[in-house]
Structure formats: C-alpha cells, structure tokens
Amino acid sequence: xxxxxxxxxxxxxxxxxxxxxxxxxxxxxxxxxxxxxxxxxxxxxxxxxxxxxxxxxxxxxxxxxxxxxxxxxxxxxxxxxxxxxxxxxxxxxxxxxxxxxxxxxxxxxxxxxxxxxxxxxxxxxxxxxxxxxxxxxxxxxxxxxxxxxxxxxxxxxxxxxxxxxxxxxxxxxxxxxxxxxxxxxxxxxxxxxxxxxxxxxxxxxxxxxxxxxxxxxxxxxxxxxxxxxxxxxxxxxxxxxxxxxxxxxxxxxxxxxxxxxxxxxxxxxxxxxxxxxxxxxxxxxxxxxxxxxxxxxxxxxxxxxxxxxxxxxxxxxxxxxxxxxxxxxxxxxxxxxxxxxxxxxxxxxxxxxxxxxxxxxxxxxxxxxxxxxxxxxxxxxxxxxxxxxxxxxxxxxxxxxxxxxxxxxxxxxxxxxxxxxxxxxxxx
Length: 428
Fold this sequence. Notes:
- By secondary structure, the chain is of the alpha/beta class.
- 18% of the residues lie in helices and 22% in strands.
- Helix 6 (373-380) runs antiparallel to helix 7 (387-400).
- It is elongated and about 100 Å long.
- The model is unreliable at 5-11, 197-201, 228-239 and 346-354 (pLDDT under 50).
C-alpha cells in the first residue's frame, strides 16, 4: 500500500496542519454478455467494479512533526478499477497510508469534533473511506429481463477537510516565562540540544528530552516555549504551544530567580495555564527557581520560606540531581493524563425490509430540490448514459414516491428538478 513518506520530515517543527483527504471512487460495473461457440443463451456476465482505496493515518515515532502536510494540502487514495466480462471483479484501489507523529489529534472541520487520537505508536484511523464498486449486469438478470444491458457506476469516495494537531506526549512539561532557563535545564538533564545563548530570547519550538534516573528509570521532558501574559487568549505563541501541556503527567514551573519579581512571574504563568484548560490546575506540579549560581538568587533563597520550592542552577548543575529525583517521584505517583474526547464512529445498522425514508421536496427559485438518503444513493448508482439504466431509474423514482411528491408540490412539465447534484427536466 502506498505510503506518504511523511516520516522523513527533517526541518522546522510544525504542530498543526489543515488537509483535504479523499477516498478513491469505486470502479464501474460491467455490462457484458457471454458469447462462446456451443453456449446458447450465454447471458450476462459483467463483473463488479473494485472498491476505492481509503485514506488511513497511522502514528509512528519516526515522524516528529507535521511538516509533510504544511506544503501539500490534498491527499487522495487510488480509485477502484472497473469490472470486466467473465464476471471479473475490478481491482480494489490501494489505501493511502499517511504517517503522523505520535500524539496527533484528528479534527473534522465540518463538525469541529475530534475523530481520532493517535496517542500510541501503531495507532491508526481511517479518515476517508473509499467508495464501493458498482454492480455488473449479472446482478440485474431476472425472469422478465434475461439480458439486462445495465450496470452501476462506482460510488464516490468520502472527502473531508481535516485539521491535524500535534500534542506532545511527555511525562513532564517544563513551563515558565521566557528566559527562565527551561532549555538550559533540558540540556543539563538529557541529551537534547535545544538552542541556548547568553542573550535574551525564547524557544520557538517545543523540544523533547529523555532524562535518566536512578535504577535505570527514564522520563520524557518537554520544553514548552515561554508563556507571556495573555497566552491563554492567544497572545504571543498562545494556544499554539499551550496544548502541548495537556498530555503531560506533571508540570514543572520554572522561573528565573534573578527576575525583578519571580513569584509574580510564577503566578502569571499559572494563570495562563489554568485559563487555557481549567483542569490543568489540578495536574500534579512542582516549582523550581533557576540561576542559583547568581548571588542575588542565593540571597533570595536565604530570605524565602517556601518548602515547596526547589532551587537549582541549570548552568552549574547545582541542585539539578535533587530536582530530577523529586520530579521522578511525582511522575511515578501521578495518574495518566486524560485522553482527548473522540466522537464515536457512526453505527451502520443493516435492517432487512426496512422502509426507506420518504424523500423531501423543497420549492426553490430555480425549481425543486429533492433530497433523502435513498434517492441520493439511487442517483449515485445510476449510469445516465444508458437507456436501460434510465428506465430503471424512472421506475425506482416512482417506487420511492418522488414522482408523487413532486406532483403534490406543484411541479409542472418542464420544471427543473435537482437530486444529488444532478438536474432533470420534470415530465410526469
């Protein structure tokens, strides 16, 4: 099955993308007849069309960003092949499998609801189903029509716009104002190499690092870009990176001890996190003051009576091992973070001899609009370039009550009637 190649996403970090996915159309059925010597009245032998391929998203650790979907918007699966004589079914279209990072949430733009949460390696979701293949004329043979010269077209594949949002999966989220030293701390406790410099700036992309604890234990830390006042309302980097703290089990609030008022900065960051997602206020958390290598920070520690605060220096490593062990204990005791609420899949109930829903007829300035699941499926299944298919279509409209509904609505000969994107001229 085709693969998008999205695992090769070296480049800038992209954690949100908008894409259009299209399942493949089903192949058309064949209207053929068996004609061989010494086989009288061979009859119809047209095969069915193949089913269209589906678009499937799957999570893999090899993908670290959604950059593969930043420049290419439309992704389509392969169409099914038409049927052939000898009752040969057309080949099914190949599924299109698209790789996304672990932690990707898939949101349907039309409904605004999450339809998949790919939060584990190997998790996958079908996001655009392929259309079914059309039936060949062998299915329409009956006692009164032994040589049906009609077949069905394939049904169109599902098409939808999706929004992909990456939420990093980590044990610990490093949260704090810009220039608090989160990147320096991540470098100090892991092999990650986020950019650090002796001048003020803030991280623009989240970074992940793995820290080694005593006893061979490991934990994953995420450096969340600095939060400023109003981040919960979209200021600065805003919602773009605040969502990455949703999946962390423990929050580590890190502040710059040399700031004019470290405690005010701490409370400001707490307000932004809580304002973005109120349930994060109940998430286990720790507080650490960085830059203990500076004299003014040591003086601050001497006059501060807060046993809940840890002190460290990411530059010299002082206090870092003790902080790491405290964080490890908090992670071990913390519950799993809540999962994203995903809309339940649509249940398809097959009821035999179920009475179809009556069609709806609406008068419009240009004519009459006929809608309804049964009549729209009928349009999808009809080949309008075939006279036998048109005759069958007219009979089916009568059986579904469309002709009677149009007459009751006041349709006159020559009026325009539209069903499922196809326009007809009404002739009673």
